[in-house]
Amino acid sequence: MRQLNEERSLGDLFGDLTREMGTLVRQEVELAKTEMTQKASTAGKNIASMVAGGAVAYAGFLAILAGIIIGIASLGVPWWLSALLVGLIVAGVGYFLIQKGRDALKQGSLAPNQTIETLKEDAEWAKEQVK
């Protein structure tokens, strides 16, 4: 049976504190890994959205450029003006998709905020244990 805290030696108390701090550090590292994995996953999805936006803008540029330029040119508009109008529209859509992905990335923080907070709490707890 464990002795009461008043009857335990200083060595026993520091031994317990060392073991508890080791466990705490391992748990904090695990929390940081979990949190960073979640944040990396979110960032990956946002980057994929940006890449998809770029690919859609490029594919749209090619398809619309070819189809509409020929259609507008057949109405008597100069080829260069047809190409310019179509290019501006497709570039605008691509810009919108890229901005959407970039803004989503900016909103998410990559810092492990939960881990930082618990480390601060752990530091306070350790100070209290030493007193």
Question: Hey, roughly how much beta strand do the residues contain?
Answer: under 5%
Structural class: mainly alpha
| Overall pLDDT score | 83
Give the total of beta strands.
0
Question: Measured on Cα atoms, how large is the radius of gyration?
Answer: 30 Å
Parts with pLDDT < 50 across at least 5 consecutive residues: none
Spatial gap, N to C terminus: 25 Å
What does the overall shape look like? rod-shaped
The helix count comes to: 3
Order of helices and strands: HHH
Count of all domains: 1
Biggest beta-sheet profile: none
Helical fraction equals: over 70%
Structure description:
The chain has three helices and no strands. It has 131 residues and is an all-alpha fold. Helix 1 packs antiparallel against helix 2.
Annotate the secondary structure layout.
Elements lengths: L9 H65 L4 H29 L5 H18 L1
Helix pairs in contact: 1-2, 1-3
Task: Provide a short characterization of the protein structure.
This protein has 131 residues and is an all-alpha fold. The chain has helices at residues 10-74, 79-107, 113-130.
Please describe the structure with a list of short key phrases separated by commas or semicolons.
0% strand; 3 helices; 131 residues; single chain; mainly alpha; rod-shaped
